[in-house]
Amino acid sequence: MKLTLFRISLAAALPVMLAAAGCASEQSDRGPSNGSEVSAIDTGSVIEKSENHIVRSFDYALGDTPENIVITDRSSDEFVATLLDNTVWWSDGHTEQVVPGSSDAVTLGVGEDAENRLYVAVRSKDQSVAGVWRRGADGNWTRYAAVAPDVGLNGITFGDDGTLFAADSVNGKILSVSPGESSFDVWLDDPALKPTSSADPVAASGVNGLKVFDNHLYASNTAQKTLLRIPLSGRGFSSPELLVSGYAIDDFAIDSSGAFYLAVHPDNTVVRVDATGQHTTLGTTDDGLDGPTAIAIAQSGVLATNLGFLGTKHQPAIVFLTSPVAEPVLPRPRVPAS
């Protein structure tokens, strides 16, 4: 009963939460390559992949709004998604609260390490809650690294050495925490990471999605409509290089061929940009997209999370889009248990 009441109040509060957050179930047991593109369909997948379609719809009225996603088993395309209301949702239907008892925790970016432990970015005005939380082997959630309550955590990603990077969309900074540390430091503070205005959720969200590939950190800036590349050779002292412009990208994915898959939230589109610079629209509102916020690379296409807020349909969902894909680039390093 308490959870139902909380979700109803969350749906009414979504506009406030999204402005503050920035545009950025039953549990499954689960215990870059040569760059060539593949399109084979594996019949072992939990996703039917013959055409673009909605894999799972959620209830906007209850505040069920998926924000981020990670595929946890490449052989079967099992996945985990975060819902904004302090919830993690597994593709078999299992759900868990990340911070039990919290009244204002907002869950956004999600990642996984080599031991299959999940990491979730949590925004909160509570100093004891704000930060990245980790799900241990025992199924319990604990805070892995803390941030101040005024930090607007969003996308997170690991480096190969176990460093965890996090986007601060509100303040326009990239943060990092090394294995064994318990709080984030500012890794890069640059004008290219900043939001442009606090007037609406898109303009209020600066650096948003983060991914590591080929010794570079890639970052999207929703407000400035850019995709950036930053060398990892130094500690955030290199200016970001502009790769793609013109799309208000929320989060994104990269495959080993060097192709980018962009969730363009306000345009209700997912766009693929390959290594030659060719742009291809993979999906639109006709395919069920309604405020796409994040991308995960499946076996013969991509999964997109629909936040369902900025669009007119209010159709939160997980959507599958067919596409040529190579192996996903998603470092899962070994990270100390404590």
Model description:
By secondary structure, this protein is mainly beta. The chain has a single domain, classed as Neuraminidase (6 Propeller). Helices cover 6% and strands 40% of the residues. The protein has one helix at 2-21; strands spanning 53-57, 66-73, 78-83, 87-90, 95-97, 106-112, 118-123, 131-135, 141-146, 153-158, 164-168, 173-177, 185-189, 207-213, 216-221, 226-231, 241-245, 249-254, 260-264, 269-273, 279-283, 292-297, 301-306, 317-322. 51% of the residues are buried.
Strand portion? 35-45%
Order of helices and strands: HEEEEEEEEEEEEEEEEEEEEEEEE
**Into which percent range does the helicity of residues fall?**
under 10%
Q: In the CATH classification, which architecture applies?
A: 6 Propeller
Can you count the beta strands? 24
CATH superfamily: TolB, C-terminal domain
Approximate shape: globular
Distance between the termini: 34 Å
> Radius of gyration in whole Å, from Cα?
18 Å
Query: How many domains would you count in the coordinates?
Result: 1
The helix/strand class is: mainly beta
Tell me about the largest β-sheet. Answer: 4 strands, antiparallel
Helical region count?
Answer: 1
The top-level CATH class is Mainly Beta
The chain-level mean pLDDT equals: 86
Indicate the topology.
Layout: H1 2-21, E1 53-57, E2 66-73, E3 78-83, E4 87-90, E5 95-97, E6 106-112, E7 118-123, E8 131-135, E9 141-146, E10 153-158, E11 164-168, E12 173-177, E13 185-189, E14 207-213, E15 216-221, E16 226-231, E17 241-245, E18 249-254, E19 260-264, E20 269-273, E21 279-283, E22 292-297, E23 301-306, E24 317-322
Antiparallel strand pairs: 1-24, 2-3, 3-4, 4-5, 6-7, 7-8, 8-9, 10-11, 11-12, 12-13, 14-15, 15-16, 16-17, 18-19, 19-20, 20-21, 22-23, 23-24
